[in-house]
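Fig. S4 source data, part A: sequence.
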Amino acid sequence: MKQIIECVPNFSEGRDMSIIKQITDEIETVDGVQLLDVDPGAATNRTVVTLAGEPDKVIEAAFRAVKKASQVIDMSKHKGAHPRFGATDVCPLVPVANISMEETVEYARQLAERIGNELEIPVYCYENAAFIPERANLANCRAGEYEGLPKKLSNPQWKPDFGPSRFVSRTGAIAVGARDFLVAYNINLNTTSTRRANAVAFDIREKGRPMREGNPITGKIIKDENGNPKTIPGSLKACKAIGWFIEEYGIAQVSINLTNIKITPVHIAFEEASKKAAERGMRVSGSELVGLAPLSVFTDAGKYFLRKQHRSTGVSDAELIKIAVKSLGLDDLKPFHPEEKIIEYVLNKNQPPKLINMSCKDFADETASESPAPGGGSISAYMGALAASLGTMVANLSSHKPGWDERWEEFSQWAEKGQQLKAELLHLVDEDTNAFNKIMTAFGLPKSTDSEKQARTLAIQEATRYAIEIPFKIMKTSFKTFELLEAMVANGNPNSVTDAGVGALAARSAVMGAYLNVRINGEGLNDKDFVESVVAEGYKIEQQAIVAEETIIKLVNQKINK
């Protein structure tokens, strides 16, 4: 389950496309990083670039881009409408999948330190990556802009977090941070009135609307003792919104920026906008996602709407996305293509073909070929995935069984657990083959000199250790399916008891098959203490799996005999 982060560097050049291309070309030199968007602005003289991938690779690509920008952009000649203080003005990292904000902060600080040390550019860490609370706000870091840097850098209070405390006229300074994912999202209304769309926007946005005397629209704005307008807060936190009319579609929209989708997810913004629109005599006809969003936006929305229907949420990502698209009306204005709008799917476009994306026949044919991989490890992982799938199927059937309506949530939770186990095991199907390929690559390294021999031996040992760890993961993950399977045999839909029984047979085979791989791969590792520990723990898991399978099959037979 790969970790994915997004990086959105802003470069102080939006007019010369040859300069912009030199920077983006650097990003594309890093394998495994996808350049998602390049958005230049002539008036702002600024380009916003979006890239994503695994953290280490994104950090490398970002560093190369910052380095190139420091060479091709001269801040002493820069003019533009947008606030700025550096050639690479800001460089935020954003967690997308399987990574916490805390981890993302560490990567941001690593990048900041490298930029400061290797490129000798003053670096301020902002947002979640800030070391000093005052610097969390980007506006504070950038106050005075480029022209104010000489004075700012001479102030001990504004000593950079990394890099020199001196003015570098060519590059200026840079702010590196970690922030939450921002989703640009529009709600479609059955009106052409911008004023009415604005009313809904003011209802929901965190900032709310000005407090007025008498008439809430035309009344005099009430101010506090400092002369600042008083406001009536809106109903949604981490939400910015405004109403506008879109000529292309002939409708008004509520245009929303959700600055923290953990606080206010897309589906909650949709529901709240629908409610406020209805209170004002309007109807929401659908919505529009601007740019890309993480997979979790859609799976969370799908689960939310399924729960409202008292239906199981333990279904595939594809089904959850389908529910989300229809419930949010994301195809209201134009067709919605998940492979173009979901970050994880876009990143997978150019990846090598995976075994799990093959048809059953093609997977069997590939296994039956004269190639040594996929082999027993991948098949064991796939058997484990099928075990989880069977348990999940029984849970979903039980959730929708007539007369069991009050138990839908109980079985939905089991189905969600099964989907998670299935996803982990499907990932391990390909990972086991990757582990084998790592060993083959290591054995193919040159061995002419002593240093090459040493590097080759080290690579072989690292690859061999990995080839033990992966089937061991397959064992442990497959074993977890027994809890689901036993619960479904004991308490699930009695018409599907044999399906769960077959799942137990598959789970036992998955555990035992993966254990064979652990043992044979252990023979090639020099770290015998590690091998002995894993083999001993693996033996315990294997014995527990045999007992679990026997217990479940006995229970299945009892149910059948009744």
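Fig. S4 source data, part B ends here. The chain has three domains: 4-178, 183-347, 352-561.
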